[in-house]
Amino acid sequence: MAISYRPYEPQQEMLLPASLQDWLPKGHLAYFIGDTVDALDLKAFYVRYAGGGARNQPFHPAMMVKVLVYGYATGVFSSRKIERRLHEDLAFRMLGAGNFPKHRTIRDFRALHLKELGDLFVQVVKLAREMGLIKLGTVAIDGTKIKANASRHKAMSYERMQQTEAELKAQIDALLERAKTTDAAEADEPELDIPAEIERREARLKAIAEARERLEQRQRDADIERGRSQDDDRKPRDEDGNPKGGRYKREFGVPEAKAQDNFTDPDSRIMKRAGGGFDASYNAQTAVDDTAHIIVAAELSNNAADTHQLVPMLQAVKTNIGEFPRQGLADAGYRSEDNFERLAGLPIELVVALGREGKQHAQIDPNTHPHTVAMATKLQTDQGRAAYRRRKWIAEPPNGWIKSVLGFRQFSLRGLHRVQAEFKLVCLALNLRRMGAMQVA
């Protein structure tokens, strides 16, 4: 007996056009993102197009926001890939509703409205609070390094900058001297466009000089923060200006020979990579609520250390939601007597580790570090230990989801202010993905 298959007619055309909504299953993330964006205040996006006239017909901002946010929520960050998905992916086509912007249009919209896209993060956090997914009982803070959009091959150390500057100056002088010679003297030499060669070397010299000045200014700022001054003669001094003994290794404002600057993204910094090695990166910070792992604050800096991020992150939670959490958890990277002192008067129960888990930290002087001693005492109690044990469970999953689920391991944009906004866009997309999953559940 012949096998009877289900009908299969690839060339069969439909008498009436199909509805894309009928093809996407109920509860799909695209529906949730589309409905959520419609509920957000998008007035800031419309301002740019006000008064454009009848002939100026840009793509609708709501559609562009939906497509961009859905792209980031599903790991599609490239404008070229989003353009392709608008033709090939059912969810993208449903959100685009028959619109097919080119990748340049998508790229320019993201660049022009980057601040507005970042500001939507706060609206989504407030929406999650209204949905009951944020309680602000316990918030855990954690940082992760994300690669900058910068080539490691287009970076140079301070020592190499000084050497290359000297080499380029010598080459420019030689070319200028050669330009003064007669044509007869150069008759037997290979033809060379001397003005173009001089211009190329001068442009290279200028770029290196600017990078060197950035490194020196960065070092001057760091030295001032350490209490140094330009006339300290490399001698450490106390608050009264008296020498304390010892000697600084370098003159004021002179960077280490191995200090580097990147030409493609000067705002990035060389940071240690998990698993070994170094990359031009940024330090991304998240504050995560324990109710549903919603990111309630997302900030970013180009300082590799987490120490200075604790107070700003808790202040960002207050700014975004209107109140501080009842409890804040952080690892030993945020330990600082100054942090503990600044947060002592706030209505937050702070639990911060003083060292690596399972290892004994150094002895603390109660006269100079009273708040640190109090934190050590808290961590010795059953309640303090139980609270800190929850930190890893609360804080680390969202950073793992950003890199492993969304696949966001490197910024698409360059410059500190741009990557700050892009990181908020990533956290906004992750929050919506999480909120959609919780709603379905």
Task: Give a quick precis of the structure.
With 441 residues, this protein is α/β, with parallel strands linked by helices.
Task: Provide an overview of this structure.
β4 (about 270) and β5 (about 280-290) form a beta hairpin. With about 450 residues, this protein is α/β, with parallel strands linked by helices. The strands form 2 sheets. Strands 1, 4, 5, 6, 7 and 8 form a 6-stranded mixed sheet that branches. The protein folds into 3 domains: about 20-110, no CATH class; about 135-150 and about 265-425, Nucleotidyltransferase, domain 5, CATH 3.30.420; about 155-260. The chain is built from 15 helices and 8 strands. About 45% of the residues lie in helices and about 10% in strands. The model has no long low-confidence stretch (mean pLDDT about 85). The chain has helices at about 20-25, 30-40, 45, 60-75, 80-90, 90-95, 105-110, 115-130, 160-180, 195-225, 310-320, 335-345, 370-380, 380-405, 415-440, and strands at about 140-145, 155, 260, 270, 280-290, 295-300, 325-330, 350.
Spell out the blueprint of helices and strands:
Blueprint: H1 20-23, H2 29-39, H3 43-46, H4 61-73, H5 79-88, H6 90-96, H7 103-112, H8 114-130, E1 138-147, E2 155-157, H9 158-180, H10 194-225, E3 260-262, E4 269-272, E5 278-289, E6 295-301, H11 310-321, E7 327-330, H12 337-343, E8 349-352, H13 370-379, H14 382-405, H15 416-440
Parallel strand pairs: 1-7, 7-8
Antiparallel strand pairs: 1-5, 2-3, 4-5, 5-6
Helix pairs in contact: 2-4, 2-15, 4-15, 5-6, 5-7, 8-15, 9-10
